[in-house]
Amino acid sequence: MKRRTMTLILGTLLAGAAGAQSADPNGTVTFVTTADPTFNPWSPNAFVESNLINELLFPGLTRWDKDLKPVPDLATSWKASADGLKWTFNLRKNVKWSDGQPLTADDVAFTFNDLVLKKELGANQGSTWRNSVTKVNVVNPSTVEFILSRPWASLPTYLAYYAGILPKHSFQGVTDPWKFTAFNKQNPVSSGPFKISQVVSGATVRMVRNDNYWGGKPKLQGVTFKVVPDSNAQLAQLLSGDVDLIAIGNPETVDRVKSSPNLAIDIATANIYYFVALNQDDARFQDARVRQALLYAINRPAMISSVLKGYGQVATGPIAPIQKTYYNASVQQYPYDPAKAKALLAQAGWRPGPDGTLMKDGKPFVISMPTASYQQLVPISLLVQQYWKDIGVKAEIKTMDWNSYIQQVIVKRDYQASAAWWSTPADPDVLPYYDSSAANVGNNIPNYKNPKLDTLLENGRKASSQLARRVVYNEAQALMAKELPYLYLWYPQSITAYNKRVQGMRGITQAADFQYANEWFVTK
């Protein structure tokens, strides 16, 4: 998940399978989302239910190509100054909002200066941007400058990652942008290939073509999202033909999809890793030996087999194997070893109590572990609970709905341990998730602080060549594998089930496919 926005996987659907068939000019598709969305990518209340919907409404300055490199979207070109502290972006001309107003540099400056960079507003991902961006200057109606406090080599990549531009004129006179219900929940002005036509709370979000879209007339007449919180209900509606595409959260259901002649399965890798976060405001978890012990105690290959049905591999850190240039597999490993886990905990002063639960300073090792009723988080938590019980550590699991979980764990940091995941840009720059400045208020949800890692990640942002970046991030991965800011579980494969009539997705990755939605079509 990115901060408070764990990514909803809707697919890497390969294009061209029905290229010889004609497209239906009146075609529509139906997807699913887990809850009522928020039509504002920067809202603190926009999470997994909103991410990809916002991709259809609010393009960013850049987007990703098939190699997950940043390419033009609302910006046509960009360059950095010699010192890396100023980036100039040239905007696409003659772009219009869905209400006919022109999209200009003022909208870009408003989005960042008035929403993202204002700490008091607490924008989604805001800490990521405040960490490096000081302000955005308007040079002229089609040119902006990002002024940085420190170099950020991956800025164009992050601008492609759920960083949509919002219309300044729509927010005139609005005192609280997050409570602007008429925009955020009902009828936003957008610049993407589709625009909102109808919202029925708890039921559907309907979109129609945006005739003002700069990229030409979308091939689909419309896109509908049905609000379907339960994954089993999502599958049932896919099998019945009521929806066209879903993410398979439970791999056990893959065979049911394969048995349908109208459906297909697409399996792809992504820059995603699952983890158990340990809140290091808790003194127990500030000891690296304890963190290492708790990971040694988890049988990750067995979990991948049981929970993922083999659709994944053991994780070693935040940089996934999909990043072939930067992934470092030669780091400290943690094979399943309960005996070693017990030995490390003993070194840290934990001894078995009368009932077998480990004790230290007269207190039992009991961990509060909230989780959400979302996809596989509950079974993951239950398995971790059992593995930790086997070494004398008691985890108390509390299950809650998704939005409550986000508020308690991600926003308020009111937890001791919790299983979750991050989906990040396919770039080794993970500073927003690990830097000390991102603790408590940013994406660093374990509140881990390490000046040495901070320096490495800052050096990674300064490095401009691929070789220099590889050297820095190899060292950073080695440090993170030893220190374990998170207990890394696995890199999952994304499993998408879809109706074969849907065509035109590029097969890049989750969010990237939605950045080219004007190319989607359905066959007659």
From TrEMBL:
Domain of life: Bacteria
Family: Belongs to the bacterial solute-binding protein 5 family.
Record-annotated membrane-spanning stretches: none
A single cellular component GO annotation: periplasmic space
Keywords: Signal, Transport
The name this protein goes by in its record: Peptide-binding protein
InterPro entries: Peptide/Ni-bd (IPR030678), SBP_5 (IPR039424), SBP_5_dom (IPR000914)
GO biological process: peptide transport
Listed GO MF terms: peptide transmembrane transporter activity
Residues annotated as signal peptide: 1-22
Species whose genome carries this gene: Deinococcus metalli
Residue ranges of domain Solute-binding protein family in the record: 69-437
